[in-house]
Design goal:
The protein contains 2 helices and 20 strands. By secondary structure, the protein is mainly beta.
Length: 351
């Protein structure tokens, strides 16, 4: 699974887990949305009917309601902005779930699929990952859920942009081994505004120093300004041409930024080629704009040695996604303490 999505199960006391993320506990009470699906999408009610021959009357036996499970989000997921090991910002959410069972019997939690939707079109699937039954059961701190029971759990999820997430949790209803599923969905970060969303604005980058000649080991200082009506997610400086490198800056959804990016031209940079700097500005919905500026072709005071080589491209680049985008990370079940803390919060919020 590529780095960037996290899913953690909530099933131990609500203390901050040893992750580099802040766990604000803002959960409201009493908001439950039932979503029930059984193979064909509807809960099946089976009512055996017996014919009483002796009396000549129709008699219906007590209805047998096979167990069904529904899952809903408790309150609003807690949103924060973290940072991937690569330096890219991450949209992170702690989401608390409530699982409820109705009917007769016991259901056993199986695996789950997490679906990420980001950008302006939240109907377009960006990524998905299957989480094992063991992790799902750990999230609930239980293997099964019985009739009329309610369980609480939760997950820590993240991605390289704010996103919508849909979770499909599967279960089996005893004594059947057929898989059934229930789904829930939530938004992590800013919701997509209605109407047209303007892309970010970016000034023409400028070189702070004006030189007659540029040489390896000189320092490039590139100035730029960027803004967005919906908030800037990040800015990124891509260096190409005579050498390759990159620098990313998380902008924390601020409306505007002004930066000077400094980069020393490597001693092994290719002579006779300009150093090109391309600035990207990206908003919370993945809309990007870019502008470039370049030096004159590099020259050298002394001839380059035969051992010189061009710096290798930054590992932040991926051929299958935007160069400024962090990849999704695997969802992680939250520590059990979080589930207990959520329960305490709900008690305090009850009228």
């Amino acid at each position: 699974m590529p780095p960037g999505h996290f899913v953690r199960a909530n099933n131990v006391p609500l203390t901050p887990v040893a992750w580099s993320h802040s766990f604000a506990r803002l959960f409201s009470v009493g908001i439950f949305v039932r979503v029930q699906k059984v193979l064909t999408g509807a809960l099946l009610w089976v009512a055996p009917v017996m014919l009483s021959i002796a009396c000549g009357d129709d008699a219906e036996s007590p209805k047998y309601h096979p167990i069904g499970v529904s899952v809903s989000v408790i309150g609003t997921p807690t949103f924060s902005i973290g940072q991937a090991s690569s330096g890219y910002p991450l949209a992170e959410c702690i989401v608390a779930l409530s699982g409820q069972a109705a009917g007769i019997g016991t259901a056993t939690w199986q695996d789950a699929t997490f679906y990420w939707y980001s950008g302006l079109d939240r109907t377009k699937l960006q990524d998905s990952v299957v989480v094992s039954a063991a992790d799902v059961q750990a999230s609930w701190n239980n293997v099964t859920i019985s009739s009329s029971e309610s369980e609480q759990g939760g997950w820590h999820v993240s991605d390289g942009l704010p996103f919508d997430m849909e979770i499909a949790l599967r279960y089996t209803a005893s004594p059947s081994t057929a898989l059934q599923s229930t789904r829930t969905r939530f938004t992590c970060g800013p919701a997509v505004p209605q109407g047209t969303v303007a892309p970010p604005m970016l000034s023409q980058p400028a070189l702070a120093q004006q030189r007659v000649r540029w040489e390896p080991s000189d320092t490039l200082d590139v100035e730029f300004q960027a803004s967005s009506t919906t908030g800037l997610w990040l800015t990124y400086a891509d260096f190409s041409g005579a050498f390759s490198s990159g620098a990313v800056f998380g902008e924390s959804l601020q409306s505007a930024t002004q930066r000077v990016v400094s980069m020393q031209i490597p001693a092994a940079a290719a002579l006779g080629r300009p150093a090109v700097t391309t600035i990207f500005a990206v908003d919370a919905f993945g809309q990007e704009v870019q502008q470039s500026v370049q030096t004159s072709p590099l020259v050298g005071i002394s001839p380059p040695t035969t051992s010189a080589s061009i710096a290798s491209p930054t590992t932040l680049f991926r051929s299958d996604r935007a160069p400024w985008r962090a990849a999704p990370s695997r969802p992680r079940p939250l520590h059990a303490a979080l589930r207990e803390s959520i329960s305490e919060d709900k008690k305090r919020l009850r009228p």
